[in-house]
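This part of the workshop introduces the protein records we will be handling. To make this concrete, we reproduce a full record directly below.
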Amino acid sequence: MKHIVLAALSLATLFAACDQRNVIDVHQEAAVPDLNNPVVQKLTSTTWFKDVNLNIPNDSWSSTNYSKKASGPFEGMLYSMAWLGMELQRDGTSTLIFYPPVTKYQFLLCRGKWKTSPTDPNTVIIDTKTPVGYATMRVKVMDMQTKDNVAMIRTYIDTGNRVMMIDFFNGGSVLEGGSPTEFPDLRNMRQAWFDGMQVSRQPIDKSLFNNTAWEMSPHSRDVEKDFEIPQMAIRTTFINDLLTKTPSLVYGAKFNFAQDGNVYIDIPSVVKETAFRPWASQVEDKTIMVKGTWRTQGNRIIIETNELPFASVGEAVFQLPVDLQPLDVLFSDNNGDAVRVWKNYYIIIEYIKPANTGAWFRISSPQETYYLFMRKQPIDKLTDVKGVRETAKTLKQP
């Protein structure tokens, strides 16, 4: 049963995309929830994990609240399979917890606000980002029970275009049947985790990064043994569009910081194979890395590159359309296959705190934000490295 659940989670979250939104309001009102209702009181300040069994009493696509989007057909799988749970804090903030399978140890937390419904009893309204955009949910508690210090609630959840019945528990998650190496620190999958991950404001000493390499996990499976398992968990607070603009770094990366100010980013083979798939035989003997520049500015390392490959899970699996405006087409053939890169991509790395074999960092770009551990190691041999743009120039029509 566990393997079926994991497979379903993997399928669902591959279709996910988080919507970038500068201001989140609940019906254009300040989120100051009314805590007089005892049911609402019990909903707050605890993590509610969703039961794997989902009943959908009504499935309607009549909503006009949101514009048509490529991820729309997959929202049902998102809510029924990839959604792990939620938090409602008493200050009016909310967190939805998702488990994306794209990287092995990544959890995605989408933030929002909530308030008590002024009209429906035992109901809260959550205004939030989700992995497929943005939603306003009405969560109505139909039943609440407590046994052995574990509470269970049965809820109706109306997302505007569908109504679902979902059971939540505050004593654990369906995924806790797995080993600690599969789902590290799952019970602590809370927004409060970030309180211990505050970015350092001290200026970064560039000399400490000259001629070194820093590897995200899991960049390659053969190095997992060199990471401390709890350190491998990646918390993602923001991904702009995991479906149609899948960020390459979501798969992992290794940053080689040369002393001359150049950076060589070794991205996983799945990204390179996707970018050069029709021309695999022409590039199989080349060491291809993403070339760019790096510099320090205060407490930040700033990386700039114009050859990060573009990846899109939705396009690869379902032929969903993508926005080509921010992309450069380096090479294409008569079949419509192409090598595409982002025209300009900026990555900001901020130091958080040291660990035994590396350090914790926050890595952000216009497409994503991660809090993660990176392992420090010697810089790779860079003499025979080919850049993505340089490699594309050597391609020939098959």
Notes: Helices lie at 2-13, 38-43, 75-82, 229-232, 269-275, 280-283, 313-318, 388-393.
